[in-house]
Design brief:
about 120 residues; mainly alpha; 4 helices; about 85% helix; flat
Length: about 120
């Protein structure tokens, strides 16, 4: 099937990003290489979270909305996974620089929600 390529690609990206997260945790010292370790951690975390949430969203959409096209499921779940990945990494970045408070986190979540509403309204 045509969508199996996309699923396997997301699985591959998730596996590679999980391996890179493991390497960042085990091989890099955040005290000696602070900037490099943080950048690699955030980037690999973004790809891991985006791929996992996209796959979970895709399979949930297939389970609940069987009468729609599979491509619509995949596009929506990929978009939502990327938006949630950006939201989580932004929250993690705010926590790393010690500026995360509840209202900053709420603003980031509301911005992510508004971005998703824009795409839903556009369809």
């Amino acid at each position: 099937m045509f969508f199996n390529r996309y699923i396997f690609l997301l699985l591959f990206v998730g596996f590679v990003s999980f391996c890179s997260l493991y390497l960042v945790f085990t091989k890099l010292d955040p005290y000696s290489e602070e900037l490099l370790a943080l950048v690699l951690f955030i980037v690999s975390l973004f790809f891991f979270i985006s791929s996992v949430l996209s796959l979970v969203g895709y399979f949930l959409r297939i389970a609940f909305y069987r009468n729609e096209l599979f491509l619509n499921h995949f596009n929506v779940s990929l978009r939502q996974g990327i938006i949630l990945g950006i939201c989580i990494c932004a929250l993690m970045g705010l926590q790393i620089i010690r500026t995360l408070t509840w209202w900053n986190g709420l603003i980031v979540v509301i911005i992510s929600f508004l971005i998703e509403l824009y795409f839903v309204a556009k369809e």
